[in-house]
Amino acid sequence: MNTAVATGASSASVAPPANGKVYTISDIPQLYNSITTYSDVNDPSVLEGIRAFRRLLSVESNPPCDEVIQCGALPHFVRLLACDNTEIQFEAAWALTNVASADSDCTNAVADSGAIPHLVAQLRSADPNVREQCAWCLGNVSGDSPTLRDTVLQSGAMEGILLNIAQPASSALLGNVVWTLSNLCRGKPQPDLHKVSPALPHLASLLSNPSTPKDVMVDVAWALSYLSDGDDQRIQACQDANITNRLVELLSSDQPNLVTPCLRTLGNFVSGSDGQTQAVVDANVLGMMSKLLSHRRKNIRKESCWLLSNISAGTHIQIGAVIHRAGLITAVVEALNNDQWEVRKEATWVISNICTGGTTQHIESLVEAGAIEALCGILDSADAKIIAVALEALEAILKTGEALNKVAGYVSLVDESGGIDHIEGLQEHENDDIYEKAIAIIERYFGCDDAQEDENLAPVVSGNTFAFGVDAAKAEGQAAPSFNFADQPQMAFNFAA
């Protein structure tokens, strides 16, 4: 649930209204009467009553949302939202916003009260404060669940939101409507692309505008990350908005909470088709990666490895771009060796994707960068999936070693890195795929030499003797255990008898 409470200036446990009276939960029946039994909506008691409700609901600790819902006030808040008094509209929208920011039951109560169509209608109010507060409430409702998000979209909220983005009355209003827009784009199952794609030109415009406030830019980037998360059609819709170069540029921001959604969006792009991936590579995303792999934020390092793993699952040209970017593979191997576990997992995928999809030259470059040692170091993890991925990468490296006539050297690197012990231990692993893969690698690359084994086991004939367990030269020149049948009495076997 991605919601926000509108506390405003009132953050005390109970805040006094203008007349000096302090309202508490015990006053709810009186306040209810003030907003339901009036003869004229412009009577000061109506404004005072709805404002008192709003103040009660704005306290930071345990606002009485359930009590307000149970007294039946919400439909009356909605009715006041539709009156012609903008002060009352504003207070009613604020009260609904705070109820919607509580738990899911409260959010659903707001929706069930019939508030959504009226909130959508007020996105076109002449009063910017009313528009802002209604957008905020809709953002809370949309952030609760995909079901409510879709209800808000079906009520026509997108058009009103985009009008306020195109012509914001203030930076605060812009911030609220963009945040609401991001909630309309998020969640799974995802919203219908046709309902949210009209937002893309507006988001692209905000992203490319250097004067866009930083907090707004963050919500823009998150909205794009939600929109691009999915199939190639979604990715292409976002790339067609011409945002790729700007997203790459923003990776150099000193604001980590902006870098993260930009990185996520680009990672989504490179999970698409080869052409969509190439567009990101062409925007020089790889030039940003080494720095991001050493970022102080673990999540940014993790997302960077995830992006690289997607590129490394691409074409040979794309894999080559990763390999040949100065210092990049060294940084990935360093992450695989020494970073926190979540980062090491993603780094394993980078190496494995190159090993299983790259050329012999690509794999040889990985070996030179220390990939064998790093992969062996992760075989002792408890994550069965990552163990399987590392084993697959090591097997691909050893096969490449055979093709390059370097397998002996690669086997030595595995041995020196403790890899043989790890792989032998995995022959007892509870996961069938892992233990079978471990056995196959051991038998192919680390078993006894068959020719030598056969030579040592076969008896060697020397005169009338058979020597076991030694080679021919030793049988000729050294005393060895032997059986000389010529010296033994011959026993006849007469089966006929």
Describe the structure.
With 497 residues, this protein is mainly α. Helix content is 64%, strand content 2%. It is built from 31 helices and 3 strands. Strands 1-2-3 form a 3-stranded antiparallel beta sheet. Helix 4 (74-81) runs antiparallel to helix 5 (86-100) and helix 22 (328-338) runs parallel beside helix 25. The longest helix has 20 residues, at 384-403. The protein is elongated. Mean pLDDT is 89; it is low at 7-16 and 449-497.
Tag the structure with descriptive keywords:
single chain; disordered C terminus; 3 strands; mainly alpha; three-stranded antiparallel β-sheet; 31 helices; 497 residues
Topology (elements, then pairings):
Layout: H1 28-34, H2 44-57, H3 65-70, H4 74-81, H5 86-100, H6 104-112, H7 115-121, H8 128-142, H9 146-154, H10 157-166, H11 171-185, H12 193-196, H13 200-208, H14 214-227, H15 232-239, H16 244-250, H17 256-269, H18 274-282, H19 286-292, H20 298-311, H21 316-324, H22 328-338, H23 341-357, H24 360-368, H25 371-377, H26 384-403, H27 407-416, H28 419-425, H29 432-446, H30 450-457, E1 460-462, E2 465-467, H31 472-477, E3 482-484
Antiparallel strand pairs: 1-2, 2-3
Helix pairs in contact: 1-2, 2-5, 4-5, 5-8, 8-11, 10-11, 11-14, 13-14, 14-17, 16-17, 17-20, 20-23, 22-23, 22-25, 23-26, 24-26, 26-27, 26-29
